[in-house]
Specification:
mainly alpha; 4 helices
């Protein structure tokens, strides 16, 4: 009986200790930072620059894959570029379209590896 009382007392003490540890879940979360033109423009520019860098690399790599007759890699690169097109500047659209045409023509001819 003493063991049960001691155990119950220990459990009660542990529960009270945990409750007093400073659980802040009852406090409301701070409001999110509002998006203003001052802080949204710089983030958009960074994302745009990163997308252009990635697109330029993909364009170069995919062109090389076409020259090397690496059809699966070239097709994957073109598909990724086509998905990125809406987020890229307008001048990238014709570049992606031209690459797709070059891929289709090269694959149709099955150009020998140079």
């Amino acid at each position: 009986m003493i063991k049960h009382t001691l155990l119950a007392g220990t459990a009660l003490a542990a529960a009270l200790t945990l409750a007093a540890c400073g659980d802040d879940s009852s406090k409301p979360a701070p409001p999110p930072t509002p998006v203003t033109p001052a802080n949204s423009g710089s983030n958009a520019k960074i994302r745009s620059d990163a997308a252009k860098i990635q697109a330029d690399k993909l364009l170069a790599d995919t062109a090389q894959y076409i020259k090397d007759n690496k059809w699966e890699l070239a097709d994957a690169g073109i598909k990724q570029l086509e998905q990125m097109k809406p987020n890229l500047p307008p001048e990238y659209g014709p570049k992606v379209d031209d690459l797709r045409k070059a891929y289709d023509a090269a694959k149709a001819m099955k150009m020998p590896k140079m």
